[in-house]
Amino acid sequence: MRRRSLRPCARARLAWRCRRGMKELDLLLLGWLNGQYPGATAACREQFEALLELPTRNWRATCSGWSTCGAEMAALVESIRGDQRIMSTPAAAGNLR
């Protein structure tokens, strides 16, 4: 099954929806969007877009493990939480400048 490519304007809209005003969540969501979304199944993409509909406080609680989501989205949430590539490369001049 061939996965549809994401048009630049649609990707920009999704990236904007990933912005939560909380750097940690922004990094998690944008990291997953950039790294995993392009190769995700249509069902997984729909689940990701549904997660973006949640209010920030609900997403923060779910992502932090303080609250649980439905079984159908649990695998996606774990994938987003476990995406370590967002912090894998330190800044060239150090992180504390």
Summary tags:
single chain, 97 residues, mainly alpha, 5 helices, 56% helix
Q: pLDDT average, as an integer?
A: 78
Instruction: Kindly state the percentage of residues in helix.
Output: 55-70%
- Which oligomerization state do the chains in this entry correspond to? single chain
**H/E element string?**
HHHHH
Tell me the total number of β-strands: 0
Task: List segments where confidence is low: pLDDT < 50 over at least 5 consecutive residues.
Answer: none
Round the Cα radius of gyration to an integer and report it.
14 Å
- Percentage beta strand: under 5%
Structural class: mainly alpha
Number of helices: 5
The main sheet comes to:
none
Task: Give a structural overview.
There is one protein chain. It is globular and about 35 Å long. It has 5 helices and no strands. The mean pLDDT is 78. It has 97 residues and is an all-alpha fold. The protein has helices at residues 8-18, 23-35, 42-51, 56-64, 71-81.
Task: Give a concise summary.
Helix content is 56%, strand content 0%. It has 97 residues and is mostly helical.
Layout: helices, strands, pairs:
Blueprint lengths: L7 H11 L4 H13 L6 H10 L4 H9 L6 H11 L16
